[in-house]
Amino acid sequence: MVTRAQVRSGFRSSRQVAWLLLLFSAVFSEALCTPLRAPIQPGATTQFHLSWQQAHAYSEVLKMRPAAARQWLKGAPSTAGSLLVADCLDITELLVTQDATRYEAVVEAQNRRLSALENSKEPGALCAYARAEIRLHQAAAQVVFSHEVQGAWSLRQSYQQMQAVVQRYPQYLPARKTLGMLQFFIGSLPESYRWFLKLLGLPGSVEAGLQNMRLAATQPNDFQLEARLILALLEETYYKKPEAALQLVETLHRQQPDNLLLSYLLISQLKKQHRTDAALVAYRSSPSGPDYLPLPYLHHMAADLLLYQGQYAASVRANQQFLQQYRGQHYRKDSAFKLYLAAWLSGDAASAEKYRRQINAGGRTVLEEDNYAQRFFEEKLPLNRILTRARLQIDGGYYREALVTLNSFQPSQATPLRDKLEAPYRRARAYQLLGHSDSARLYYARTIALAGNAPYYFAPQAALQLGYLYQTEGQKNTARTYFKKALSYPKHEYKNSTDTKAKLALKELE
């Protein structure tokens, strides 16, 4: 039997992955659900589909307009669909605002909805699906707000209930979407993070998860758009298919320019694909106003983009705006670190020291970005100004400028090992992103050779990228060797995400 201590320990060791899984599910599950079927006419009811009022309410949740969503719910029938939409709205507001003062009220409302569904005599798949989905939302709230034990059991209940929905209604595709997402994320976790989920009876399977999500993404259903977006984002993150994800988001954004959530996804995708100028255009044109739910994280992304461009004062203002609006504990350390970088690179030593101390003043180390910032503070390793500027230029898509910057880096015997590793790694990244594969392979190999077992992320990331390069060229055995090497490094800043990507790449080569 699983003890409370085991569950708590398990969530501590992999809280980052669990939080991302559940946050992604809660924010995008149900929110991205513009129906692709013909809309149900007023007065019609069904055991498998949303009513027309519920569908309109969903579309307003997608746009992040809570008042409009609630207005549509007033005229909707009091059924499982309405309970599901209402819960989607509550959990989205809670997780976007990260307002801990609202946590208890949201969980209590979820319990009332779950009780109503359990006692409901409403037949059909939608009722059973709503029950499992709301339970998953509750798991998200509990994990994000540090109630890991309750969150573990809620996740277990949701998983088992969603399995039952799929077994009873095998043609009901929305359940396959959510079950598939859970199967994929659990199956993609490194073994060291999966033990507590196995103890809870939550088996994962990347293959089964992808199969279920593809069924929901490729066949008409109420939530086909949501399934398409989730699948595209997973393939972009873990299988290096960025073009398809960006194309889908761009198309949807052109169709719905008033949709704040799609604006967020567009900015995020452009940022991940190093298209800083386009991302800032999308940020500045994103919808806003009193009708919209504030989305502070947009300003944090903009601060990064401005940092890439060397607009340090503007970057500071954007991150300060994020911190003023944001009520959560995640990304606070990362924001303080980025404030430090902006001040330090602009030559403001006094502000840089203030922001450096702010890293340790608050926030949590659940996410890798926050953990990296905390390690920077604790280890007191001095950054190299040239390498830091080159890194930011590469992140922003300014690859040729980064190579020029790197040309001015001249190591000596006194140069720290970390800097000696970072220089060839940054050069390799710039060449890879410019499409110069031979030069990229040369500098990645040099990084690995210099690193030995140093506890920095440059060598494992170099091995991962070499694996991708050789995989693209069809050299599967060599790619497999480098993916395994990426997994072999015992400790570095981005081990969780690196190991997950390497593991999935190896599965793809089987």
Summarize the model shown.
This protein is an all-alpha fold. It has 27 helices and no strands. Pfam families: TPR_8.
Write a structural description:
With 510 residues, the chain is an all-alpha fold. The protein has 4 domains: 4-240, no CATH class; 250-294, no CATH class; 297-379, Alpha Horseshoe (Serine Threonine Protein Phosphatase 5, Tetratricopeptide repeat); 385-509, Alpha Horseshoe (Serine Threonine Protein Phosphatase 5, Tetratricopeptide repeat), CATH 1.25.40.10. The chain has 27 helices and no strands. It has helices spanning 4-13, 15-28, 52-62, 66-74, 80-97, 103-118, 125-144, 148-168, 173-188, 195-199, 206-218, 224-238, 242-255, 260-272, 276-284, 297-309, 312-325, 332-345, 349-359, 368-379, 385-395, 399-406, 417-434, 437-451, 458-472, 476-488, 495-509. The longest helix is centred in the N-terminal third of the chain and has 21 residues, at 148-168. It is globular and about 75 Å long. The two termini are 35 Å apart. The model is unreliable at 1-45 (pLDDT under 50).
Helix proportion: over 70%
Q: Would you count the extended β strands for me?
A: 0
Mean pLDDT: 87
Amino-to-carboxy terminus distance: 35 Å
> Approximately how much beta-strand content do the residues carry?
under 5%
Overall SS class: mainly alpha
Number of helices: 27
* Gyration radius over CA: 23 Å
Q: What is the succession of H and E elements?
A: HHHHHHHHHHHHHHHHHHHHHHHHHHH
Number of domains: 4
Major β-sheet profile: none
Shape: globular
Low-confidence stretches: 1-45
